[in-house]
Design brief:
Layout: H1 7-25, H2 31-50, H3 56-59
Helix pairs in contact: 1-2
């Protein structure tokens, strides 16, 4: 898998995942919405860890720096 997520994108994904986790664990969001947001938070966290976004791939989008 080629890396297609840059540093700023990775940091933004981690911050958004953390915000979603806080909302879920503090009870601000409950029931089905909590499950959906939890799944989204996990996906954001995993994609930031591996630096690859499967949604970016078919559109040939890359926020990673180009290699010289």
């Amino acid at each position: 898998m080629p890396k297609n997520i840059g540093t700023v994108d990775r940091i933004a994904r981690v911050i958004i995942a953390a915000i979603l986790a806080v909302l879920i664990f503090t009870g601000q969001v409950s029931s089905t919405a909590a499950i959906i947001l939890g799944v989204v938070a996990v996906i954001l966290l995993l994609t930031s860890i591996v630096s690859f976004c499967p949604i970016y791939f078919p559109f040939k989008i890359s926020t990673a720096k180009k290699k010289a």
